[in-house]
Specification:
Elements: H1 2-15, H2 22-28, H3 30-46, H4 50-64, E1 67-68, E2 73-74, E3 79-80, E4 87-88, E5 93-94, E6 99-100, E7 105-107, E8 119-120, E9 125-126, E10 131-133, E11 137-138, E12 143-144, E13 149-150, E14 159-161, E15 166-168, H5 175-188, H6 202-230, H7 256-266
Helix pairs in contact: 3-4, 5-6
Amino acid sequence: MFQRLREDIRCIFERDPAASSAWEIVLSYPGFHAALHHRAAHWLWNHRLRWLARLFAAISRLLTGIEIHPGARIGRRFFIDHGMGVVIGETAEIGDDVTLYHGVTLGGTSWDRGKRHPTLGDNVVVGAGAKVLGPIEIGAGSRIGSNAVVVKDIPEGATVVGIPGRVVNREPPADEDQQRRDAMARKMGFDAYGTTRDMPDPVASAINCMLDHLHATDNRLEEMCGAIKRLGGEIDENGMPQLPDCEINAGSAFTERDETAEQRLSE
């Protein structure tokens, strides 16, 4: 028991830079308290004292703001940061070294008995406000972004964002590919922002796919024009018309079309 306590305190020091002492953690961290209460409630649940286990869990919820069903199975070094509003269902299974932030729900999607809550592998991090719903599996080492809603299985080491949750690739593209995409973006008058090592963006990834397709189409058109010239055909040498610049303005700025539409509405 004391070994588990030392592990819990040590993992909080590793994951929360605000922790300054062991006494602070023991006396004032609701996530630490909720984990201790759950172990007692889970022991009662496994020994068929289920009404007492539910009562103990209800008291823990009043004290910590964290609701963990006593039937949930939780591994070692589990940490809930801040904790308020966390809900963990009866058939949820959580591996070792998992971190949850406030507002996380590990919930079900049906009223049927049996497995209806998610299974989280080791070293999973679930961001604030995220909802992981149904009897799905979240692979080890995965990261679920804040406010994401996950309803499908997630592979190991993936990062999930959005509603519904989408897996995004954290690996940066090859340098040659990125240079080609930047060149095509400059030709179109559009800056393909957003795909960085630290901030994966599925929208920017989709834009990169379109740029790749445009690059291939451009090369094919040049080959076709060359073939037509070799056959004696005439090709207009004028270049393609330039596209207007595309920019995303912060704040409440409007495009010219938006301003015209708003004037019509006001009239």
